[in-house]
Amino acid sequence: MRWRKAALVAAGGVVVVTAAATVVTVATWPDVATLQRANPATTAFMARYRERQRAAGASDAIAWEWVPWESISPHLKRAVVAAEDLEFFSHHGFSTSELRAALREAWEEREAPRGASTITQQLAKNLWLSPSRSPLRKLREAVLTWQLERDLSKRRILELYLNVVEFGPGIYGARAAAEHYFGKPASQLGEHESAQLAAGLPRPSRWHPGVESPAYWGYVAEIERRMGVAEFLWRHLGGAPEITPLSEPPPAALESLPTVPPVAPDSSSDR
Fold first, then answer.
1. Given a cut of 80, is residue 16 above it in pLDDT?
2. How confident is the model at residue 123 (pLDDT cuts 50, 70, 90)?
3. How much of the chain, in percent, has pLDDT values that exceed 90?
4. What backbone phi and psi angles, to 5 degrees, belong to 154?
5. Phi and psi for 244 in degrees, rounded to 5?
6. What residues contact residue 204 under an 8 Å CB cut-off, 6+ apart?
């Protein structure tokens, strides 16, 4: 019968398309393990910024230069972890407490859940993915996040993130940000300067050192307060606090730290 033939043809087409998509995905899937020693030559977000600039008839130049872990201020490392992912050293790529908080806020406000991305998830997005929130893209992000956590150390993941994340329009990585905003190397950033850089990550096109936004400066202050409480980060990130903490609190204790209010990503940002 005609409808059966049509159904078979349609099913065959779906199989062919699915198989082709699978082949393409496998062929283009990133080799995550190479990042153990090799630094990325560029990222998906950098390429997208350049594409937008060219489309607007503007320069597509970016400020970006790699800086090794040892040459990044421990204050910047603390500020970014405190602002972006306080459970970074205790989770395996996914934060259950952040997810619970996002779902709770969504229920109370009757809105779609906000992002609950960890630093590892954001690194995966920056390196290889689009800002789309489609189920397929989220699935790819989840797999890549798992691979990053499996193949790389926490130190290497944070080193990569600090080197590729956007700190302002066309300004990528700790070295370019430190030189652009403060005229100094990334190794010499202080606590206040580091908090300013970390506070701009959700909205890099509008929030960065030098702007007069009260919301931005309020967020800087919140990050500084959280850095002061989360003294256990010194043990993971080097440097020395005024008083050395005796032990690291368990993950459950992190929920009692001062709350940094969730910041909605800039609509013009890829985040």
1. no
2. very high
3. 60
4. -60, -40
5. -75, 125
6. 166, 167, 168, 169, 171, 266, 269
- What is the Cα–Cα distance from 81 to 23, expressed in whole angstroms? 37
Sign, CA dihedral 76-80-86-90, equals negative
Token representation of residue 271: 């985040």
- Phi, then psi, of 194 in degrees rounded to 5: -65, -40
| Mean pLDDT for the chain overall | 80
C-alpha to C-alpha distance for 61 and 231, rounded to whole angstroms: 38
Residue 107 to residue 128: CA distance in whole angstroms: 31
CB-based burial label for 270 (10 Å; 0-12, 13-18, 19+): buried
Cβ proximity of 116 and 99 under 8 Å: yes
Specify the higher pLDDT residue, 132 or 251: 132
User: What average pLDDT score do residues 134-140 get?
Assistant: 88
Is 251 buried (19+), middle (13-18) or exposed (0-12) by CB count in 10 A? middle
Question: Which distant-in-sequence residues (6+ apart) come within 8 Å of 112 by Cβ?
Answer: 106
Q: Superfamily assignment of 39-256 in CATH?
A: Biosynthetic peptidoglycan transglycosylase-like (1.10.3810.10)
Structure tokens at 137: 């893209």
pLDDT over 70 (residue 61): yes
With contact defined as beta carbons under 8 Å apart, do 75 and 189 qualify? yes
- Supply the angle between the helices 135-151 and 119-128 in degrees, to the nearest 10: 110
Instruction: Report residue 44 as tokens.
Output: 């998906």
- Cβ atoms of 187 and 181 closer than 8 Å: no
